[in-house]
Amino acid sequence: MSDNFRVITSDFVKVNVTNSQNSAVSLEQKFAKSLTIEELKNKLEIITGGCASSMQLDLYNGDKFIAKLVDGTILGSYPIENDMRIHAIYSISYIAENVPKFEMSDEQYKQKQNTVRDFLKKNNLGKYNEEEQKKMAERKRIQADEEARLASLATIGSRCMVTAKGPHRIGTVMYNGPLEGKDGIFIGVKFDEPLGVNDGTVNGKRYFECQPKYGSMVPIANVTIGDYPPENYDDEL
């Protein structure tokens, strides 16, 4: 190739480093393009405290995925440019011993450029989209109001039909309220036939009494209150 057409690029590249242990922090680093990916992982082990042997590296331009950095290749073989981001993912939850954990205050992070937060703010995305946040809050309010309205109808002893997970099931409301570890209002139902999953106990906590396999805890949105008379399944058989 003629020297007139030779493309000259830097031997080093300046990138931001994030990792799956603390994705909120972006650390600016400079690396030689001649590094093998294995050598790069060893350097990142010192920086992030993650184990090189369990590390997977992904290359991003902003939030756009570019490539996986694979062992046996060199960094310069990828279309890597300044201000791109290398994200280290650890398949095993591991922090190397005696490696000081990198920490950055929220104020320091705000001042950095080419971070995920900076990208979201510049593009008016996520929590920085005020109009979308208002719409989301309104949708949540409407959903909460509707759940409260439905819950007010689901009095203990009411007959109901459950419309989730397969065919409709008929039963009786035995519980109305929160379910530990879950958001929203749940209805405890004792079904007319053994189409449930428990006896009124969930994760060791009893919410109501019924026979095994006759009970279920169901989100209020999947419960319809109505005049559903008990069916005689023995006669059908």
TrEMBL record:
PANTHER family: DYNACTIN 1-RELATED MICROTUBULE-BINDING (PTHR18916), TUBULIN-FOLDING COFACTOR B (PTHR18916:SF85). SMART domains: CAP_GLY. Residues 177-219 form the CAP-Gly domain. GO terms for cellular component: cell cortex; cytosol; microtubule plus-end; nucleus. One of its GO terms (molecular function) is alpha-tubulin binding. Signal peptide: none annotated. Keywords: Chaperone, Cytoplasm. Its main location: cytoplasm. It is found in: Cytoplasm. The gene is Tbcb. InterPro entries: CAP-Gly_dom_sf, CAP-Gly_domain, TBCB_Ubl, Ubiquitin-like_dom, Ubiquitin-like_domsf. One of its GO terms (biological process) is cytoplasmic microtubule organization. Belongs to the TBCB family. This is Tubulin-folding cofactor B. The keyword Cytoplasm applies.
